[in-house]
């Protein structure tokens, strides 16, 4: 099962915990390395929420003399005299002794005199200093991802630089004598390396960097040399070479280099021949050679591990509740990855989930995935299920 | 209403339609500028889906002599003689005259003789050339976004370069005398420019580039000069200066420069004082000064417009069905943006959606948004609603 394999991997993960300072405009989707506390009240002074007239509610229903206009950004401090009002713009500082704003649209003005009736409530459109955020209050926590809303909150506090966690250095390989690169020319008996491009794209889309290091030929020495050459990376991801075929040298090479197995398979279809090895602080993932399996395990297992290494707080995928549409049986001795299309609250499979794990087009058709539990033998029409959005 | 405003803007949009070649590893999240057709069958040759033995089903239940091993990538063409079988690895080319593979786990082998019983079905684990994709077939359409699954499909075809649409050049301003930059020091009466950082982050997260051009002071001349200085951009986004206050010079300056209004407000709360102007192929968005309104209108209106300018096919947001939790009333003469938290299939509001449009923290708490229709006066517990995920 994916969850228990992930937990086993997480137990073996060393979080990097290294951080660096970045300016706010380079901080999007980075992971906070420190808790962030408010440095100032938000708003920082009492101000008007609307364009209108500032007055004191004691004088509601009485004629008020309009004595001037206060603009946003005006640094002077104004004070209301009795029976007076100020025109005031959104965001402008409230004059002393005022407690209410009537918006232009609801104000009655004749000859520079303002009349406000009781349909306006006391404190209308009056924004109090600190009503949203108080200085010293915790705003964001270490491990949170800096999405645009959080960037906005930091900017509103005048916080222009933040410490974020550095992300792991990742090397990506592919393996197999039958594999050639998309920029080469495949003969009739060769197949293009689709896995590495997909792995790179999955990582990049999730804001992880990686370097592609090439195809490892099916030989013990080549495998050993390739893994050794990437010893300065935190994580190595390769695909192929993990099943029980004669020409799989990955496990042997890793053992030779002192790596220990963290997981040597996952009870899931597709994706069973997935291995994860560890040496000191380094992890090696050997993903299945079959494209669909490599893609899904990279998404479901490698990505959460990279987040964990980066000390990201939220490691779970966003989940959506859906109604299953159709009927499907699956083997209950394992977990099954069911690709589907989520639309209008319903999740429908692609070809009743019958296709080879070497295929790619079902991934293109799908926009979400259901992961069955071990012991679960199928789904019936209208079952409530929890799905994970894909691309 | 947002939808009708968007339609009006879309009618006034000139798609750029300019394209450039990018290599596959730089193509993630770019927009395809050409339909893509398969250049080769997938798989390109008959091959084994598993590690096992290739044989001819006519000889099921008979002892078969294992005459050799075929590895993936082996360029030789093998042929089965009668009463013979080959060991075969995943992805290896099927020998001629074979039609079925029995996986190692289900094979009975004694003294180099293979026995297969009828529990194995004919054509088991036999992948036929072209069974997934046939050469010439359309794979992807112009206007599709290159997500990781599509990158994988292109790589599997040996397509290493694609034409993608260039995206619009976007300039971002802020406006207002009361605004100072997060990297400056605000006095008691000034407020930090949160809008520009958020707009930049929203665009960047959605893979649009933009350049920040600074704060426009509240003066007609400054506004005129700022807009003129950005005449080489396809889209200008500014915030503030769009309401009816005395110190709003944006509309005047745009008129002076020959811009025509496309929309001069949106019947939505928050976000009403949103304007969009057009001159030749250029668009200017004037977003509200209030942070929450600026954020949501940038997300809900500006982003789809940028996609449209880039000829992206899918302009609608992903929508999720949810059960409303709680009870809420809102004014039915307009559309209302209701921030909320989606969890376990339920959508709950933040403080019953009561907070000022100058606030930012509700955006940080929310992970999704409900947009009410004009004429809709509220939601009751357990109502089925469609929501849009935020960050």
Molecular structure report:
Two copies of one chain form a homodimer. In chain A, helix 4 packs across helix 5. Chain A starts with a helix and ends with a strand. Chain A is α/β, with parallel strands linked by helices and 391 residues long. The first copy, chain A, folds into four domains: 2-14 and 167-309, 3-Layer(aba) Sandwich (Molybdenum Cofactor Biosythetic Enzyme, Chain A); 19-40 and 134-165, Molybdopterin biosynthesis moea protein, domain 2 (Alpha-Beta Complex); 47-127, Molybdopterin biosynthesis moea protein, domain 3 (Molybdopterin biosynthesis moeA protein, domain 3, Beta Complex), CATH 2.170.190.11; 320-389, MoeA, C-terminal, domain IV (Beta-clip), CATH 2.40.340. The mean pLDDT of chain A is 94. Chain A contains seven helices and 28 strands. Helices cover 18% and strands 30% of the residues of chain A. In chain A, the strands form eight sheets. The first copy, chain A, has a six-stranded mixed sheet, with no helix packed on it. Chain A has a six-stranded mixed sheet with strand order 16-13-17-21-20-18, with helices on both faces. Chains A and B meet through helix 2, strand 14, strand 15, helix 3 and strand 22 of A and helix 2, strand 14, strand 15, helix 3 and strand 22 of B.
């Amino acid at each position: 099962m994916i969850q228990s394999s992930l937990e086993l991997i997480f137990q073996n993960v060393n979080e990097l915990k290294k951080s660096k300072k970045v300016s706010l405009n380079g901080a999007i989707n980075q992971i906070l390395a420190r808790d962030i506390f408010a440095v100032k009240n938000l708003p920082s002074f009492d101000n008007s929420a609307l364009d209108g007239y500032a007055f004191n509610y004691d004088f509601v229903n009485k004629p008020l003399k309009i004595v001037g206009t206060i603009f946003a950004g005006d640094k002077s401090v104004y004070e209301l005299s009795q029976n007076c009002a100020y025109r005031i713009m959104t965001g402008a500082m409230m004059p002393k002794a005022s407690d209410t704003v009537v918006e232009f649209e609801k104000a009655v003005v004749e000859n520079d005199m303002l009349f406000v009736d009781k349909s306006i409530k006391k404190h209308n459109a009056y924004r109090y200093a600190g009503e949203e955020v108080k200085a010293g209050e915790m705003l964001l926590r270490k491990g949170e991802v800096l999405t645009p809303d959080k960037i906005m909150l930091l900017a509103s506090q005048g916080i222009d630089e933040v410490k974020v966690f550095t992300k792991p250095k990742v090397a990506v390989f592919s393996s197999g004598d039958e594999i050639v690169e998309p920029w080469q020319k495949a003969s009739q008996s060769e197949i293009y390396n689709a896995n590495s491009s997909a792995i790179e794209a999955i990582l990049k889309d999730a804001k992880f960097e990686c370097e592609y290091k090439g195809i490892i030929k099916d030989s013990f020495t080549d495998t050993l040399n390739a893994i050794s050459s990437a010893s300065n990376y935190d994580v190595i991801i390769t695909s192929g070479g993990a099943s029980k075929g004669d020409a799989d040298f990955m496990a042997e090479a890793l053992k030779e280099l002192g790596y220990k197995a963290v997981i040597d398979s996952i009870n899931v279809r597709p994706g069973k021949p997935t291995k994860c090895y560890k040496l000191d602080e380094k992890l090696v993932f050997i993903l299945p050679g079959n494209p669909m399996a490599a893609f899904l395990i990279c998404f479901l297992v490698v990505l959460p591990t990279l987040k964990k290494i980066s000390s990201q707080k939220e490691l779970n995928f966003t989940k959506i509740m859906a109604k299953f549409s159709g009927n499907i049986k699956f083997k209950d001795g394992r977990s099954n990855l069911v690709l589907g299309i989520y639309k209008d609250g319903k999740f429908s499979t692609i070809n009743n989930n019958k296709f080879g794990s070497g295929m790619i087009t079902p991934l293109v058709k799908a926009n979400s995935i259901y992961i069955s539990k071990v012991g679960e033998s199928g789904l019936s029409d209208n079952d409530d299920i929890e799905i994970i959005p894909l691309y």
